[in-house]
Write a structure and sequence with these properties.
- It is a single chain.
- The protein folds into two domains: 328 residues, Thiamin diphosphate (ThDP)-binding fold, Pyr/PP domains (Rossmann fold); 37 residues.
- It is built from twelve helices and nine strands.
- Strands 1-8-9-5-4-2-3 form a seven-stranded parallel beta sheet.
- α2 runs parallel beside α7 and α5 runs parallel beside α6.
- The longest helix is centred in the N-terminal third of the chain and has 26 residues.
- The two termini are 42 Å apart.
Length: 397
Amino acid sequence: MVNGTSTPSAPTAFLGQPRPVVAPLLERAADLAIAQVLDADGVPNGNLAEPDLSQAQLRTMYETMALVRVIDEKGWQLQRSGRLEFWIPSRGQEAAHVASALAMDAADWIFLADREPGAMLLRGASLQSLFAQFFGRADEPLKGRRLPLLLGDRALNIIPCMTQVGAYLPHAAGAAWAAKLKGDKTRFIVYFGDGATSRGEFHSAMNFAGIHRPPIVFFCQNNGWAVSTPTDRQTAADSFAEKGDAYKVRNLRVDGNDPLAVFAATKEALACTDEQGATLIEAVTYRLGFHTSSDNPDLYRQPEEVAAWERWDPLPRMRKYLQACGYWDERAEAQMQQRCEDEVREAVTAAEAMAPSEPAAMFDDVFAEPTWQLREQRERLLAELETELETELETGA
């Protein structure tokens, strides 16, 4: 009480209501019909045969995964230090997109979601171009006009995603159908998360694919959480893969943290496109970090759950497999890590020094010829920016 008036109490911090710990589905892979080559220790004890990959291909797979993790760690540091506006971590999900992208041919088309930087690397994108996109620099394929990690490059046959989750799925199905109508042999893969299966666009794309059988792989990365919504709050189905049954779309589940299993499953799905059309792959994985840099996973999940999934981390599993094959050792690991860190550091320095995209550039390339509305909006933006600059100069702000 102050002078007879009650003093409002300090607000209680919201601590969230984390759900009870759910054991990793990969521990019951055989029972849940999840295709698997490697066990948690990197030993080929699964229900799927090892794919026929050369030593060079296996090393490329692992080294790309490792580079993606270094990129992710650096991106997180840059965002937390205020040098990047936003970040979408991919730690724990490297195998799912790297191995599946490696199974594609260079002429095939990729529709990205937002955790697949390895696909860009495998297609030949430079680290400098990736970080130029992260920093919003003008001299990158998308001209610095996208959020970080909404990557893409038409020259590499890679379509960037949009912020509306899963909204691009019908576009991917339609593009694949166009290829089929033209009679060429181009295949397609489209990445999306488990949360996208709750959107109408997913079901529209599945229905379309069941009817027209386009040459496409729908690659669902089931990381257990649609931001803060767990699987059991999102669907009553036993799996996301079985949703394809309703539309007569071939489907399967694979250990998304096992790069060998992902490669084999994707390669098989691509080989089936001529006769069976589309395949829906559910890659069972886990997001070890934050959903985005705006997220706090401690509000909805227990740290014990994350710790249980650490055992299934794809990088140690693949490293142990390579060591057992005689393709890797501690010296190679140390050299690779140093090389990745050096290359990323150089790319950051080069990209950060590049010119940023101009604000008015957001109106470019919307249409072949700008509409009067776009011209008007552009002029208004430039006038407002000029007024703000004059005010800053006058006030010394």
